[in-house]
């Protein structure tokens, strides 16, 4: 390509304008939200969960979750009176269409809703080779889908099985704790649609959040504490059978 | 100065390296987004992109701003703590434009059973009904869904 001095002089200002547009970036999504003022988590009150799976359906509607994949799902545990050390765990289609008939026996049943634990030291973000998944300054683990390669290292690294590869986008997808809602002052879709209040969004940096009193007065546990992931989904009265 | 004269080809090589490094920096400056590294080893604007997704559930506050009559019916009933969209479904579009987007009519035969079907797997103190509870009559024949207890004056 042969450019004359005149042509170069014409092209330079155009290049400068284009460079400015590259540097400008995208505008702010939610102007009244300060990330450093929040530290998000969730409280799940197991005795209140009735296994209606409203949360699973609401999550799918809110976040366009593809069929067969789940950002949240509900498991039904059955510790039978015959085999107490080996509970039966079922979650047919994430519990979305309900659960099969339960048999009356001397054992016990309970439901465990699961979702991304939004870990402080999350294994999934540590293995990402391209910086596509990260813990945001407000404690929410997010995926930058325009950066993700779809290598699925994070899917393997998550000890809770909370990630999947989106079948059409071919990138990692997971619970965002309804980030587009909580930054606007709303609660998550699952909490909004939970009829019994078994799921509650909590802000650990908000001194007026009832979570602080709840943690002091109840028997609260996180999943797989031995993995030291710093999980922020707190389960009230979690049975030892839950894995 | 014989040493410098002999090392001329090395300077030439070093110059090439410096040039290559500058070209690398130039390309890097162009392809790495400006917000990368703003908060950590990721694109800071990804947070804002995710926050900008549209909502589908309007949130109970949006419902209660208009439907004050239902709030009054609900407040002393058993369903006081149940948010509107738990049963009515995601209605952000209706909340934005109540005139043209009408919420779908609900089928109580499907909805009520989701929570209240009798099963041994539910907490014992949760109100549950067996399949022959109403002999086939729709739930709203006896129960007003916004305040369902019959003895509390909720019956139609």
Can you walk me through this structure?
The complex is a heterodimer of chains A (243) and B (156). Chain A is of the alpha+beta class and 243 residues long. Chain A has one domain: 2-Layer Sandwich (Alpha-Beta Plaits). Chain A is 23% helix and 19% strand. Chain A contains 7 helices and 11 strands. In chain A, strands 9-1-11-10 form a 4-stranded mixed sheet. Chain A has a 3-stranded antiparallel sheet with strand order 3-2-4, with helices on one face. A two-stranded antiparallel sheet of chain A has the order 5-6. Chain A starts with a helix and ends in a 7-residue tail after the last strand. About 3% of the residues of chain A have low confidence. By secondary structure, chain B is an all-alpha fold. Chain B has 2 domains: 50 residues; 95 residues, no CATH class. Chain B has 9 helices and no strands. The longest helix of chain B has 24 residues. Chain B starts with a helix and ends with a helix.
Give a summary of the structure in a few sentences.
The complex is a heterodimer of chains A (243) and B (156). Chain A is an alpha+beta fold and 243 residues long. Chain A has helices spanning 5-24, 54-63, 123-127, 153-157, 179-182, 189-193, 211-217, and strands spanning 40-45, 72-79, 88-90, 108-115, 133-135, 141-143, 164-165, 172-173, 199-203, 220-221, 233-236.
């Amino acid at each position: 390509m042969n450019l004359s001095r005149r042509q170069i002089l014409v092209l330079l200002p155009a290049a400068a304008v284009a460079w400015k547009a590259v540097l400008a970036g995208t505008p702010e999504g939610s102007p009244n939200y300060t990330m450093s003022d929040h530290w998000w988590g969730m409280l799940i009150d197991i005795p209140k969960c009735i296994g209606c799976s409203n949360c699973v359906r609401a999550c799918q509607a809110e976040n366009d979750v593809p069929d067969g994949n789940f950002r949240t799902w509900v498991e039904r545990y059955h510790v039978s009176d015959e085999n107490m050390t080996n509970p039966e765990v079922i979650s047919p289609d994430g519990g979305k269409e309900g659960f099969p008939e339960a048999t009356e026996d001397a054992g016990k049943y309970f439901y465990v809703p699961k979702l991304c634990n939004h870990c402080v030291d999350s294994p999934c973000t540590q293995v990402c080779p391209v910086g596509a998944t990260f813990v945001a300054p407000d404690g929410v683990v997010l995926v930058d889908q325009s950066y993700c390669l779809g290598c699925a290292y994070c899917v393997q690294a998550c000890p809770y099985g909370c990630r999947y590869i989106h079948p059409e986008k071919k990138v990692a997808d997971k619970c965002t704790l309804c980030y587009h809602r909580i930054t606007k002052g709303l609660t998550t879709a699952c909490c909004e649609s939970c009829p019994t209040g078994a799921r509650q969004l909590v802000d650990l940096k908000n001194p007026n959040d009832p979570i602080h009193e709840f943690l002091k007065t109840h028997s609260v546990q996180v999943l797989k504490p031995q993995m030291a992931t710093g999980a922020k989904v707190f389960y009230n009265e979690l049975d030892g059978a839950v894995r | 100065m014989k040493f410098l004269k002999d090392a001329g080809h090395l300077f030439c090589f070093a110059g090439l390296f410096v040039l290559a490094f500058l070209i690398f920096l130039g390309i890097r400056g162009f392809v790495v987004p400006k917000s990368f590294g703003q908060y950590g080893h990721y694109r800071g604007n990804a947070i804002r992109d995710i926050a900008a997704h549209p909502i589908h559930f309007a949130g109970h506050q949006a419902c209660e701003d208009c439907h004050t009559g239902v709030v009054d019916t609900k407040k002393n009933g058993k369903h006081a703590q149940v948010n509107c969209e738990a049963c009515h479904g995601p209605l952000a579009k209706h909340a934005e434009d109540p005139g043209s987007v009408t919420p779908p009519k609900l089928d109580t035969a499907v909805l009520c059973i989701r929570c209240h079907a009798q099963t041994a797997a539910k907490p014992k103190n949760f109100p549950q009904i067996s399949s022959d509870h109403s002999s086939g009559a729709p739930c709203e024949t006896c129960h007003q869904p916004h305040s369902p207890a019959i003895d509390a004056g909720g019956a139609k």
